[in-house]
Amino acid sequence: MLNKPVIFAIGNAPTALIQLYEMMREGTWKPAFIIGVPVGFVNVEAAKELIIETDVPHIVNRGRKGGSNVAAAICNALLYELGRE
Known about the structure:
alpha/beta, Rossmann fold, 3-stranded parallel sheet, 46% helix
């Protein structure tokens, strides 16, 4: 685990959110922030709920929609807002 803040942006694989949740539970990773907006039908809603129930700050949409383009748009919007300060 790094000693620096880490932001995870996941937009395409619900299994990646599940794996991240498992690593957080094991203490391997403690992200500073999670963007979790994968698209899909199998396990996507359950994977998002796992992240929503954590104490880690996050942006997660509910439902089956999302995608890498949505995750990238969220990252860009956050960076844009940080640059305005």
